[in-house]
Design goal:
The complex is a heterodimer of chains A (185) and B (243).
Chain A (H helix, E strand, L loop, with lengths): L14 H5 L16 E8 L9 E7 L24 E5 L5 E6 L6 E2 L2 E2 L3 E8 L6 E6 L4 H6 L1 H4 L12 E3 L2 E3 L2 E2 L9 E2 L1
Parallel strand pairs in A: 1-10, 1-11
Antiparallel strand pairs in A: 1-4, 2-3, 2-7, 5-6, 7-8, 9-10
Chain B lengths: L39 E2 L4 H4 L28 E10 L9 E6 L24 E5 L5 E7 L4 E3 L5 E3 L2 E6 L8 E6 L10 H4 L4 H5 L4 E2 L10 E4 L2 E3 L15
Parallel strand pairs in B: 2-11, 2-12
Antiparallel strand pairs in B: 2-5, 3-4, 3-8, 6-7, 8-9, 10-11
The chains are: A mainly beta (185), B mainly beta (243).
Chain lengths: 185, 243
C-alpha cells in the first residue's frame, strides 16, 4: 500500500509560540569542551533581515557518529550532545546555535568534510529550504567533499562559515546577490 | 541495524510535486523569500537519513491537552484531534515528537505581533506537544481555532487551521504543515492553501469529522493522518520499528 505524502505549509508569522524551546539553541550543552557558537543573520532578497524565521541544525557528534539506529556503526548516545539546534531569528534577523564541531561522516567514496545540515523555515516560505554549513579551516577535506564539489565554485563560499574569534558566523541569504546555495533533498 | 555499507544508506523518496512552490505570487510574502538560483542535488547520506530521536522528556504533563494548561478552561468548542503518522510505505512513524500551535477560538494568537482586535483568552496558550505511540498514533485535546484576517489581499482571511511540526526519523522527513477543517468556506480565497499545486493533495490537509472518536457530553473529534516521505528502497533490515 502506497500513501501520498502530506504537503508542506508555512510556519506563518507566529512560529515562536510553537517552536521556540528554552534550550533550543543548544545542540551541545553549555560548557561542553570544544563548544562554540555559530551565529548568523537571515536576509531576504532586498537584503533586509528576516525577523520571523527559524533555523534548525542537525549534525554528527565529534567522532562523526549519530545517535540513530540507521547509523551502520550503531547508535551512540552522548550526554550533553543532542545534535539538534533550533533558534528563531530575533529582531535583527539573527540566530545562534551552540554546538561542537562534527566529525567526518562516511560518504560514497570516503569521508565527507565536517558539515552541519540546516533547515530554514519562515513566514513567506511555504516549504523549508535546506543548506549545509562547512568549516573554513577544513580546506583539504572541503576540497575533497562530494557535496561541495557539486556546487559551482563561485557559489561554494555561501556554505562555508567564517571564523569569529572562538566562534563562527554563517549568514543565510534567501534570495538575490550572494544567495546561499540551497539543496534539493 | 541495517546491512548497508557505511556511507551507503538508502535514501528517501523525493516528493517535490506534492509541496507548494516557494515562489507563489498569490502569497505576497514569498516574493523576497524564495531562492532564485537552481537547487543543488544533495544525495541522501548519513546526515540526511538520521534525525534527533527526541524522547518523552520534551513533553510535559499537560502538553497534549491545550484545555488544561491554565487555572480555568479556555473558551471555545472543545475538540479531540487525533490520527496516525505513517511514511509513504505505510509504516507507522513511532515515538516521534508532534508539535502544534494555533489561534484561540476568536482567531487570535498569543504572540506579541498578533494584535488584531479579537480577544486574547487568559486560559489559552495555543501550544501542544505529544509523542506518537508504538502504532504511530497521536492525540490532542484543544479548542476549535477561529479564522483570522491578514493583509495579503483585499479582505483576506485564513481558514481555521492548526500548525503541525514533525521530525520523523530522518532529516529528509522533517515536515511543518497545517491541518484544516472540513467544509471551510474560506479555502477559495486562501493563497496558502491554494499554493499546493494538486487539488487532491490540498484535501490531504483537511481533517475528517470523526463521530466515533467524540466523547459524549464533552468533546467533538477530528481525525487527521500525516504521511512523511518513505524510503527509496527497503534496505535489508533486521531491526524492528520500535527501539
Amino acid at each position: 500500500m502506497r500513501y501520498e505524502t502530506t504537503p508542506s505549509q508555512t510556519v506563518g508569522p507566529y512560529l515562536r509560540i510553537g517552536l521556540e524551546w528554552p534550550d533550543g539553541p543548544f545542540a551541545a550543552a553549555e560548557g561542553t569542551p570544544g563548544g562554540f557558537w555559530i551565529r548568523g543573520t537571515v536576509r531576504d532578497g532586498a537584503g533586509e533581515p528576516v525577523t520571523d524565521a527559524l533555523v534548525e541544525t542537525w549534525q554528527a557528534a565529534p567522532d562523526g557518529r549519530f545517535d540513530h539506529p540507521d547509523d551502520p556503526r550503531g547508535a551512540v548516545s552522548r550526554p550533553g550532545f543532542r545534535g539538534l539546534g533550533r533558534c528563531p531569528t530575533d529582531a535583527s534577523g539573527e540566530y545562534r546555535i551552540h554546538t561542537v564541531k562534527p566529525g567526518p561522516v562516511p560518504g560514497p567514496d570516503g569521508p565527507q568534510a565536517p558539515h552541519i545540515d540546516v533547515s530554514v523555515f519562515a513566514r513567506g516560505m511555504l516549504h523549508r529550504v535546506v543548506t549545509r554549513i562547512y568549516f573554513p579551516e577544513e580546506e583539504a577535506a572541503n576540497a575533497a567533499d562530494p557535496v561541495l564539489s557539486a556546487i559551482p565554485a563561485d557559489r561554494r563560499p555561501t556554505v562555508v562559515a567564517s571564523r569569529d574569534g572562538a566562534d563562527y558566523r554563517f549568514d543565510i541569504r534567501l534570495q538575490g546577490r550572494d544567495e546561499t546555495v540551497f539543496f534539493d533533498i | 541495524m541495517t546491512e548497508r555499507a557505511p556511507g551507503q544508506p538508502s535514501g528517501y523518496i523525493r516528493d517535490h510535486g506534492v509541496h507548494p512552490p516557494l515562489d507563489s505570487p498569490g502569497y505576497r510574502s514569498t516574493a523576497l523569500r524564495h531562492p532564485k538560483r537552481d537547487l543543488v542535488l544533495l544525495p541522501h547520506m548519513l546526515t540526511e537519513v538520521t534525525a534527533p530521536l527526541l524522547g518523552e522528556d520534551r513533553v510535559g504533563e499537560s502538553d497534549n491537552d491545550l484545555t488544561r494548561q491554565h487555572a480555568d478552561e479556555p473558551l471555545g468548542q472543545r475538540i479531540i484531534v487525533h490520527g496516525r503518522v505513517r511514511d509513504s510505505d505505510g509504516r507507522p512513524v513511532t515515538h516521534t515528537l508532534v508539535e502544534i500551535w494555533q489561534a484561540n477560538a476568536a482567531g487570535r494568537y498569543r504572540h506579541v505581533a498578533d494584535n488584531w482586535p479579537a480577544p486574547l483568552d487568559p486560559n489559552f496558550t495555543g501550544v501542544g506537544r505529544t509523542m506518537t505511540d508504538a502504532q504511530g498514533r497521536y492525540r490532542f485535546v484543544t479548542i476549535q481555532p477561529g479564522a483570522y484576517p491578514w493583509r495579503n489581499h483585499d479582505n483576506a482571511w485564513r481558514p481555521a487551521h492548526i500548525h503541525f511540526s514533525l521530525f520523523g526519523r530522518a532529516f529528509t522527513q522533517r515536515l511543518v504543515t497545517q491541518m484544516y477543517f472540513p467544509g471551510d468556506p474560506l479555502f477559495f480565497q486562501d493563497p496558502i492553501w491554494n499554493s499546493i499545486p494538486d487539488p487532491g493533495a490540498r484535501e490531504r490537509l483537511v481533517a475528517r469529522y470523526d463521530h466515533d472518536a467524540t466523547e459524549p457530553e464533552w468533546a467533538l473529534a477530528y481525525e487527521w493522518d500525516i504521511v512523511l516521505r518513505g524510503r527509496e528502497a527497503t534496505p535489508f533490515e533486521s531491526e524492528v520499528d520500535d527501539e
